[in-house]
Amino acid sequence: MISEKLQKFVNDQIAAEMWSSNLYLQMSFFLRHEGWDGAAHWMEQQSNEERGHALKMASYLLSRGGAANLSQTDDVPQSWASVLDVFENVCSHECKVSEMINEIVEAAIAEKDYATENFFRGFVDEQVEEEETAFAIVDKLKKAGDAGLFFMDAELGRRK
Ligand code: FEO
Hints:
This protein is mainly alpha-helical and 160 residues long. Helix content is 78%, strand content 0%.
């Protein structure tokens, strides 16, 4: 059975994943309102992924005899300065999430809870991918400039 301390870590992470899901959904609404339907689609897909992470973590907690508690999530920002600003915020947010995941792995190692360590190492790998993708989009947006934004929007809209 998973310890009370690790349960708290995981439940905090579930809340963070749901906050991320809300953040990206709000970004999707904002982008669509601004006329960037491709980027809005990308962000909606990302929002769905984050909700999936929360569900996967809750399922893991329950399988280990823990209690999954969905606490109230804080409000998310409502608007951004530009498409680039949106994706720069994704980068900084994902870096924070990576730190949180690392802390869970460290706590699990300290308790010799190798199952929890192993489970969250999967998310460590996922965070590497998420950060890489977000930073690559920021890089391309900077190179594209205003003129290339329509091309970038079309590319982002192809996300499956
Ligand atoms: Fe589920 Fe992007 O962290």
